[in-house]
Amino acid sequence: MKINKKYMLSLVVLVALIILAAFFFQKYLPEFKKISEVSVKYVFILAFFTLLTIFLNALRIKMLAGFYNIKLKKREWFGLSAVTTMANYLVPFKGGTSVKAIYLKKIHNFPYTSFATTIGAVYIVSFFVYAVAGIVLTLMISAYYNKFNMAVFILLLVVFVSTASVMLFSPKLKERKNKMLNRLVTVANEWRSMRKNRKFISKMVILETSAWLVMSGRLYYAFQALNYDISFLFCLFIAILSLLSAIVGITPANLGIREAVIAFSSKLLGASLVMGAYAAALDRAIAMIFVFVLGSIFSYVLAKHK
């Protein structure tokens, strides 16, 4: 039986993270009990923000499909968001994305090359937004709280320069004889056409900014639920690093990696590393409940209406 190396790597990383998490939570068990004492009010607040995240992902699907003149029904664009999010919890390397690609290809004859263009566009625009916001927040936090991390600032600058370059300079490429290279050329040229549509890119920027703000709200109320007072400015910054970590995608739904980034980001800002880990764990636990409920429902709905 042949073992997929990518999935093996994902499994090894996930097991290692689970072991480290077990030692971590055992060491801070008294504090960990705070999660079970969270007020019902905060459970509903965090659930609401989770639904907002799924809804924004759904709007992104609708908008990108619309760019290619594909009109998705409400149950499709919202359902695909729920199902994809659930699938990402089950499969590493953002495997849920393939579910969306297969559905759009089978039901709407949406080419895989065009789908690849939409994925690239989301990364380029979202990372551009995160980089710009992150640079501004880094300078604000440095000015108001006298906290500055050069490594993070350089990382944000690199992301900004890289994404800004792709957004501003995308020359038209000629077709190649090689089939694989020609697919890459198609993706690059479609992106070139997409980035020239300023109205469309502006909508994407607004959408990705909204997603960042919602993630910031999720973190803020997760900290509040644990009775830890933290500046919303810090949550805005932590959310950016958390969202940027999504590019790793080794484990299902970035499990463990996202939590580690949130915990260490909290520590960088002088907040509690332990509370950062617990806030991330609380947000994850509540999100998973609603993601699997909605994902299961819409898996049936989409399958039924094929």
Q: What is the H/E string?
A: HHHHHHHHHHHH
Question: Number of DSSP strands?
Answer: 0
Mean pLDDT: 83
Helicity level = over 70%
Low-confidence stretches: none
Number of helices: 12
Q: Outline, from the CA principal axes? A: globular
Assembly state of the chains shown = single chain
Terminus-to-terminus distance: 34 Å
Strand content: under 5%
3D architecture notes:
The mean pLDDT is 83. Helix 4 packs antiparallel against helix 5, helix 6 crosses helix 8 and helix 9 crosses helix 12. This protein starts with a helix and ends with a helix. The chain is mainly α and 306 residues long. The chain has one domain. The protein has 12 helices and no strands.
Detail the topology: elements first, then pairings:
Blueprint: H1 5-27, H2 29-32, H3 40-67, H4 74-90, H5 96-108, H6 112-145, H7 150-168, H8 179-195, H9 198-225, H10 232-244, H11 257-268, H12 273-304
Helix pairs in contact: 3-4, 3-9, 3-12, 4-5, 4-12, 6-7, 6-8, 6-9, 6-10, 9-10, 9-12, 10-11, 11-12
In short:
The chain has 306 residues and is mainly α.
List keywords for this structure.
mainly alpha, 12 helices
